[in-house]
Amino acid sequence: MPAAVVILSNPHDTHAHAMCEALERKGAEAKFVYTPDFPGKASLTIKPTAPTPILFATGAARMDFSTGCSSVWLRRPFFANVPKDFEETDRSMIERECRYMRTSFFDLLCPSALWVNSLNTHRLEQCKPTQLVAAQRCGLRFPPTLISNDPGEILAFVKAAHNSRVVYKTFNAFVPTSLLTEELLADTDALRWTPGIYQHYVEKSHELRVTVIGSRIFTVRINSQQTSRGTIDWREAQWKPRGAAGDLTFEPATLPRPIRAACRRLIRTLGLAYGAIDLIVTPGGEYVFLEVNPSGQFLWIDGEVGLPLLDAMSEMLIQGTLDYKWNSRAPSVRFDAELLEAAQERQRLSMAAHNCDIQR
């Protein structure tokens, strides 16, 4: 019987569609649960029987989760907006009850499977302070940092930086990191109403993306300081304003053994099966931790650097273990132009058939 992998995501997500393609090419079954379809286009049902509860989702077809699955990939489980036709009080009640139903369903879903990542760790994407505390305990250095909405504390922190610059980050990873300006510091109302993460700016030689997939580590050098737009936040240099490719270049890299061990400790300490760690390497050769993303993108590494992350990730999901067996020299799927085209076709069809009005 082929391995079954449950993917919890949304119709927009190219990574989820690429994974479905990879799994099916390997002979595995991909059970894609479109989380925004509930409750408008899909139903969730729980029958709390002993010794094993019965769970199934019903949309275009019934999807049964009572039988074993090797793993669950909690990818990008966005949820549906409540239609505006309902009264405001009804909408609040509907949203609350749907949230409780989803939580109950996920709590009982595939309890013996490998979760990538677990429900408890999924929130870490926004919990940057938790990451920093764990990183320090695991032996990773990070910049002097303040997380606050107190204008007095923020101004004192900036003053203590002396001649160093200070960067501002939001808890939301979709907003780029930026240098703190005099205008923002002068607006005390904005400081108070938008809690933020403030860090002393660290000079960079280059940056690293360290992707941990189970027991394996993949490292990419990001040449951010050779770009026109990505010196503060390298993601800004990946694309030009109109969507064309930017001037950012990447190459495979290796980590010193102590840093590699510290990254591995961090992932285990946080309880993650997968994590994308961002590091700075200073001109003096020091390694500085920035953050870890439990659902970070990885297809760009496969496509632009040539490291077979899609194949490794799919093997971990199929085998359902962190210590998966895998031959890095002979990947069976690659994220090439042909697989991208197949994933985009899946995405196009799913966006036509499933709910795309989602909470972000």
Q: Output mean pLDDT.
A: 92
- Tell me how many strands there are: 16
Oligomer: single chain
Q: Structural class per helix/strand content?
A: alpha+beta
Helical proportion? Answer: 25-40%
Straight-line distance between termini: 37 Å
| Major beta sheet, strand line-up | 14-13-12-15-16
Q: Compute the number of helices.
A: 11
Radius of gyration: 22 Å
Q: Could you say how many structural domains there are in total? A: 3
How would you explain this protein's 3D organization?
- Helix 1 packs across helix 10 and helix 1 (14-25) crosses helix 11 (337-353).
- The protein is built from 11 helices and 16 strands.
- A hairpin with a 2-residue loop joins strand 12 and strand 13.
- It has a 5-stranded antiparallel sheet, sandwiched between helices. A 4-stranded parallel sheet has the order 2-1-6-7, covered by helices on one side.
- With 360 residues, the protein is of the alpha+beta class.
- The protein has 3 domains: 4-117 and 348-353; 144-200, Dna Ligase, domain 1 (2-Layer Sandwich); 206-294, ATP-grasp fold, B domain (D-amino Acid Aminotransferase, Chain A, domain 1, 2-Layer Sandwich).
- The chain is globular.
Defining traits:
five-stranded antiparallel beta sheet; 3 domains; four-stranded parallel beta sheet; Dna Ligase, domain 1; D-amino Acid Aminotransferase, Chain A, domain 1
List the helices and strands and how they pair.
Blueprint: E1 4-9, H1 14-25, E2 29-34, E3 43-47, E4 54-58, E5 62-64, E6 71-74, H2 88-108, E7 114-116, H3 119-122, H4 128-137, E8 145-148, H5 151-160, E9 166-169, E10 178-179, H6 182-186, H7 188-193, E11 196-200, E12 206-213, E13 216-222, E14 250-252, H8 257-269, E15 274-281, E16 287-293, H9 299-305, H10 309-319, H11 337-353
Parallel strand pairs: 1-2, 1-6, 6-7
Antiparallel strand pairs: 3-4, 4-5, 8-11, 9-10, 9-11, 12-13, 12-15, 13-14, 15-16
Helix pairs in contact: 1-10, 1-11
